[in-house]
Amino acid sequence: MKNDWQRLRIEKHGSSDSRRFVAGVSSAAYLVGKPVVRLSTAIGANIGDEWCFPVAFDSVTTGATISQRWIVISVTTNLQNQDRNLVATQLIQPQRIRRLAERENGESDYVLYWMEQSQRAQDNHAVEYAVRAANERGQPLMVLFVIPENDPELSLRQATFLLEGIEQTQTAIQGRGIKMVVRCGEPDEVTLDVAKRASMVICDRGYLRQQKSWRRSVAENASCSVVEVESDVVVPVDVVSDKREYAARTIRPKLNSHLPDYLLPLTTTPMKKDSTTLPVSGDDLTDREAVLRKIKVDRSVPAVSRWFRGGTSQATAKLNRFVESRLTSYDDHRSDPVRDAVSHMSMYLHFGQISPLTIALKIKETSAGTQTDRESYMEELIIRRELSKNFVNFTPDYDSYSCLPDWAAETLDDHRHDQREKHYTLSELENGETHDEYWNAAMREMRETGYMHNHMRMYWGKQILAWTNTPDYAYRITEQLNNRYFLDGRDPNSFANVAWLFGNHDRAFGERDVFGKVRTMTTEGLSRKCNPDAYVDRVNDKVDED
Question: Of 349, 280, 398, whose CA–CA distance to 120 is shortest?
Fold first, then answer.
């Protein structure tokens, strides 16, 4: 019965219990290494025993095939008359968990969750793992978030969106009886300082070079164990593949084969010990300007709260509106920048203010739209987004021209010296001073609002390649503008999108000047997809409104 079994590892709970019990599951179950048995009333299970049971609680026979097995860190409640989803919510799949360091801290006051990528309280596997770890140790839990003080590319726009979101997250976390401290500084250094009194550090997972470096530093220098819990993808990156995938078509079947095991809800675990009075200080987020003065920030790129405000509540509200009114006909209209047929989730996903699991389950469970609409959205949310995570995770130079596949680099180099019909400087591009009014409108939307429709992003980026001296210079300019103005800049998705413009995750096309065999996008093609004049009007009305 493929994918129909789950496994519980029964471990010591608390300080004195020597046994736990699984009770009242009215179906067959399998003690690993033993014949199939039936669970009816309470059956004792020794610590360390592993129980398998069919997730749908269907009848099975002796000798049934056991394929997928999951592990629960502890069993805190008896399982009585529970259906598949309720049982699944008790599980944090072991493939999400990596132990980065094993050490014992003899003098500790709390368990520490260092929040970095997953900047939310809801549907956060790292939070729930940390709560359970603290409960099992009989300690309080503290959450730490560090705002990097010397980020050379952080704009006021991005910093404001982050602070709007983290203030909401702090309120939600503390509402569970968990102290959340926010400080400015170097993330690894501040974490190591706060971890001196921790029995264990839990961190979420990030895939970019700097994120990996911070976690490596904490793992190497912390005086206690360090555990990483992956919660910003539906399927853990290393479960899907152990290498850089060539394209969506190569990763799609791998992701789809694992979705039944990971596209499952997660519930919160009650915190046993209140930590809100722990004597650990942080910055006051209600004084936002004081916080901003403590960090390096580019104030020439202003906040865009007028259009997009950070926070889980804003993300959830936008998601609900999308499902209720725009998921219908999504497949038909998602490529039309004139229609607002998109969810605007990318910026919230970038800051970890909403979980991809939250979104995927919402789409899976709704009856809105057609099956094609829902599948089309899930393709973008899971296949394309998690392809980008695979890309940055397995590509050390993901933010450089050198990351391109050989065929793309070779064909672009062959056409490096082709005559460009138009040529623009970085300043002219940044200010939208080209001959192309559609491109200028896209640049204006990006510069003023921090957002651009994905189809226009593709058109926008392809023209930069056509209008600059060399392909590698075009790559640098595209990435520089992308990182500076977009709210979701510097995201794995953004790095993958820039690389796509130059041939990554794509195939060869008919050879043309400048582009070689890399896909082109023309004004004529844009006009076939949408009404670009209406797009220009829409951008101008949006930006010029009071």
Answer: 349
User: Looking at 50-64, 150-164, 458-472, 501-515, which range is the least confident one?
Assistant: 50-64
**Same structural domain for residues 124 and 192?**
yes
Q: Does residue 88 lie in a domain region?
A: no
Nearest Cα to Cα of residue 349 among 148, 157, 494, 542: 494
Q: Are residues 171 and 193 in the same domain?
A: yes
* Cα angle 393, 395, 401; round to 5: 135
Range of the domain at 55: 5-80
Q: Which of 27, 57, 80 is the last residue of a domain?
A: 80
Give the three-state DSSP class for 359: helix
Q: Domain count of the chain?
A: 4
**Dihedral in degrees, nearest 10, Cα atoms 258, 262, 264, 267:** 170
Q: Is 72 within 8 Å of 66 (Cβ atoms)?
A: no
Does residue 325 sit in the same domain as residue 462?
no
Structure-derived torsion over alpha carbons of residues 89, 93, 98, 101, reported in degrees to the nearest 10: 60
Nearest Cα to Cα of residue 353 among 164, 178, 132, 92: 164
What stretches of 213-366 adopt beta strand conformation (E)?
A: 225-229
Q: Where are the alpha helices (DSSP H) in 97-228?
A: 125-137, 156-174, 187-194, 209-221
The mean predicted confidence, pLDDT, of the chain is 87
Contact present, 141 and 130 (Cβ < 8 Å): yes
Residue 299, burial from CB neighbour count under 10 angstroms (0-12, 13-18, 19+)? exposed
pTM beyond cutoff 0.70: yes
Last residue of a domain, one of 366, 394, 422: 394
- pLDDT tens per residue across span 193-202: 999 999 999 9
Residue 332 sits in the same domain as residue 431: no
Instruction: Enter the tokens of residue 415.
Output: 């056409």
pLDDT in tens, 312-355: 999 999 999 999 999 999 999 999 999 989 999 999 999 999 99
